[in-house]
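Q: I have two molecules that I believe assemble together. Could you output structure tokens for the complex as a whole instead of separate predictions?
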Amino acid sequence: MVDDVLRLKLALLSSAFRGPRRLARTAVVALLAIGFTVAVLEAAAQFRPDDAGHRAGLVVIASILALAIAISPLTSGLGSALEPRRFAPFPIAPGRLAAALAVAGALGLQGLMAVVVVVAIGIAWGGTPFEGAAVGGGLAGAVAVILTGQFLVAVAAQLAIAPTAARTVALFARGLVGLGVAAATTTALVVERGRDDARVIEIGAFLASTPLGLPWAVAGSDAPALAARMLGALALVAALAIGWRVLVGRLLEAPERQRWIPRSRGLGLFDLVPATQGGVIAARSILYWTRDPRYRLALVALPVAPALMMIALAIAGIPGQYLWLIPIPVLALFLGWFSHNDVAYDHTAVWLHVAAHVRGASDRWGRAVPPLLLGVPLVVLLAPVFAVWSGIEGVEPALLGTSLGLLLTGIGVSSVASAAAPYPAPRPGAGPFDQPPLTAATAGWSQGLSMLAILVLMAPALVTAWRGIEGEPELLPIAALAGVATGVVMLALGVLIGGRVFRRRAPELLDLVLRT
Amino acid sequence: MLEVTGLRKRFGRTVAVDGIDLAVRKGAIFGFVGPNGAGKTTTLSMITGLLRPDAGSVVVGEADVWRSPDAAKRVLGVLPDRMRLFDRLTGAQMLYYCGVLHGLDRETARSRSEDLSRALALEGSLDRPVADYSIGMIKKVSLAAALIHSPRLLVLDEPFEGVDPVSTAHAIDLLRSYARAGGTVVLSSHNMDLVERVCDSVAVIVGGSILARGTLEEVRAGSSLEERFVDLAGGRSAVEGLEWLTTFSD
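A: Yes, here they are, computed for all two components at once.
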């Protein structure tokens, strides 16, 4: 039985090399995996067992990576071929199926990455009396990671009811894994710097007391604690194994969950938002941002533009620490500015808003939701990371504040610009690079002026932040406050003014799109 | 129910609508007919608050469409010609969207969408994106969207273009019962037979001015509406210069 499932797994793995598209995908994944392996082993070689900060850092990094590796099977989508329920029609004892699936789970990229982490820990503790304990604990940890991954796959397969839900989960998992790798890298840098050891030790001690960090913290403690942690790690594996066995048994017996049939007709996102003008406009906006190629281009370009800018500035000789401060504000600026021609993107469909005499502020708020929903978490998560990477002390709040300010001010200015100065845009359904049937001189003006307006409104906060970086660190918190305050006020004002303009000029806006 | 006085609109040098006066009483089904480019769509757009007139006033019920649009647009249901819908939404989402924009709550918007889709035989297509609809289907879903907030006055621009005969019959029944209950309908069409079948009063617009108006009987003046219409629109011009068309090439 076990080798049947293993053969199936091998066949699945080899299918990743069939066909040019899948091959390209596999090549990318392989490159990422190799990069990951090299980075982890390299970091392990730098480990100093006598340094408390390093020891704690090891626990933190291993815990984060364990979590990322456990989640990683979800990144390729839900509904795995090795999901327990698929075997329900065959006469297989649940116990043997559970064991076979767990072994099959260890085979493959996930298992490989877990092994890399164990090897890295072995290298890290190599030559110390703790080597054996480290590898033992690590192996227990790796098994726990793989079993957790199996749990997630099995549960996710039950959730994979609608394709959109499945895609969302996969995307979310990818984000989490990416975030995990970023967090591990940041931790390594912080540990290497050695200035925040106290904090790292605190986090390490906390993680070591949870199931997540326990297996990685076996080595490096005194004998009683070592024994206790080793036992704890084994108990964790046993608990997961029993749980896995029970889950497989349940899944084989319980009838498959019915595909969820909408009680009334499926309204998708519209079921989740409040039934108000602003609510439905927000839902419609989000759908267009995710489905319309004109918006999707912007989403693809967003991470690329700051990266290109960084490369260009690096070649121009800007020192590295400043380079790290550039991407997030630039990203926030573009994301806020992007919707400055949103009404023209609706084309004549905007008549619905005119005929219903939609409240201006509702229209503006609704359109502001997608960039807010995308931009705020992005800035809040990434700005501190980039600030740490820059190595400039105390710049975190300033980078966060000014980036948020740029985003919110951008959305505020766009709210006014899209009502006051729209210009012909590609029609719905057209490609993002298609030229509108009628180009107008207003396009350049509108684009340039709205960008300039954002920068001018944010200038006080930006200048303060710059002076803070250039030797007046007491200004950095002020820049952060100024940035956020400017953003909030400008967003509110923009929505208010933009709403008035939209309502007054609605027929003229419709006239403009009619003529294009 | 609808009072239009001195409505005027010019685009550049061409006068599209040249001082139109109209009055439609409550409960009427009013037909607005005219040849291509006569100013029908321009007039209807100004009546519904979508296109700002150069002069003149439009009063719906008690409210002036251009001075107090809030009150006027609440009682107006609109189906414009050749304007897009948000076509990446499904039909159900589209109807719900229109309902909520017009101030309906969640349950009402949903149940009315269902009622309307049943009445207009849209049920099977509601979960498909509007972008996949045929022209006739788009007209039907637009009609449903115009009706969803139970307006007092319906303004429909070419509502039956591309709609199959069965659905047209459904829609006509629906409009008749709506008018019997006190609703008012203004519709434009190229199809004279249809206008004769549905409307109780008509106006003929040619070159931006109204040439005839009144009850169907008055405008028809004994002949068929189509005959009258062709007369008013300048009569049949003799087919000249197309003699080659009668000498077949083989």
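A: One point stands out. Chain A touches chain B at residues 264-268, 270, 275-277, 279-281, 284, 287-288, 291-292, 346-349, 351-358, 428-429, 507-508, 510-511, 514 (CB under 8 Å).
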